[in-house]
Amino acid sequence: MMKKIVLVLVFMTSLMQAQKPKVWIYSDMSDNTLKGKDHGTVNDPDDVSAMAGYLLMANMFDTKGIVIASTHRSEHKTSGNQADWANAFFGEAYKKDVIHLNKNIGGFPSTIDFVQSCIKVSAEKYDPTKNYNSLKNYNTVELLLKEAEKSNEIINVLCWGSLTEPAILVNYCLANNKKDILNKIRFIAHWTNSPLHQGSIEQPWKVANCNEDRAACEYLKEKALNGFITYYECGAIGQHGIVSGSPKGVEYFDQFKKSNLGKIFAEGKFAHNSVDHSDAATYWVLLGDWGVGLKDITSNGTNLLEMEQKNENQFKLYSTNIHNELLRRSNAAVSK
């Protein structure tokens, strides 16, 4: 009898895990104490807050990999191993909070690990004239490839910064006739196109995450438009929907500081009287129950003005609920 119960529990756990969307994250995030020209640090620290938010929501996802420092900033040539930093900075906070998160909510993995990007030291940008027939020098691209090869489900690749690594993967798959791999991957990108913010109707690509490596951006958009890959473009709905529509003031966000992850979330990038975690739009649309879902975004990389405006407004309407859910989880992390 006991054996049957154990088997049922194992089956139910496996079923629950299978129902969670599989996630792979590419982030340009790095240690925000490293001095630089982007808000006083090497890379914009908004990803720090977005990552803390993701970890508070981690029971909703099957996290397959998180690649950090996927960036082209020359300062990173000698900045030290950023995976070591992240595994200490986020890893220790998560380890402390996950105990009560699992006690009060449940379903959180015991650990979540980070790896350093293969382009961190070289600052390499995607070369449109090159055929990437081998991934020998691109270990974090190869890690995603191997994950897709063994997966029977879609892997959602959340793009929070540079698109060089996703572009290399797509190029490699097409060069090596691995279209089956591309059928198991969908890209969900934050602000690599916007006719409303930074960009314009005439030049929607003139946004930070596309200017960073425009060749990679244009390559992926072209492949999406022609049906080779699935690419959901969120535009600026994270910044101008979730962030702009959020509760304001130190008093509200100080409530997060009771937990370790909540403190990182609140302090990662606090600007204009609220927390900037705009890349988080990529995982809230994946969940689909918070105002905007993938069904509300085209899958061919395009981002029409009317669609972006509608989704921006929807996230504004749901922003307080999103932040209160994060606060509920932050409180659960310390509630005995």
From TrEMBL:
Recorded coiled-coil stretches: none
Gene3D superfamilies from the UniProt entry: Ribonucleoside hydrolase-like (3.90.245.10)
Highest rank taxon of the organism: Bacteria
Swiss-Prot/TrEMBL keywords: Signal
The protein, known as: DUF1593 domain-containing protein
Signal peptide: 1-18
Domain (Cellulose-binding Sde182 nucleoside hydrolase-like): residue spans on this chain: 43-167
Matching Pfam families: Sde182_NH-like
GO MF, one annotated term: hydrolase activity, hydrolyzing N-glycosyl compounds
Database matches in InterPro entries: Ribo_hydro-like, Sde182_NH-like
